[in-house]
Design a protein that fits this description.
Length: 105
């Protein structure tokens, strides 16, 4: 498991292509614990790693693929929040699954 190391923030974007490439390179499954739009605090789980190649993972590369930002108060109070909310909704729905987390292999 790799934890969030920075200050508390909202997950605003994820570079999915880079996470898939890193998972393939290391021959592991990378599970992104929070969803886009989730609030994370220091030491919250950020990535869950599965497989024998977890020692091959470049942690700095993973951390660089998730963008964080300040928490918005409301879509109605902050017009800049609308794209963030739309992307959060898009990241939440993954179809009927047992887990809402994103996995890359």
């Amino acid at each position: 498991m790799l934890s969030h190391r920075a200050t508390s923030a909202i997950v605003i974007a994820v570079n999915l292509e880079a996470l898939v490439a890193e998972a393939r390179r290391a021959d592991v499954i990378i599970e992104l614990a929070p969803r886009v739009g989730d609030f994370v605090t220091r030491d919250d789980p950020l990535f869950l790693l599965y497989g024998n190649g977890t020692t091959k993972i470049d942690e700095h590369r993973l951390y660089g693929q998730v963008a964080f930002g300040p928490e918005r108060t409301s879509r109605h109070e902050d017009p800049d929040c609308r794209p963030c909310a739309a992307s959060a909704e898009a990241g939440r729905w993954q179809g009927p699954r047992r887990s809402d987390r994103l996995r890359f292999a």
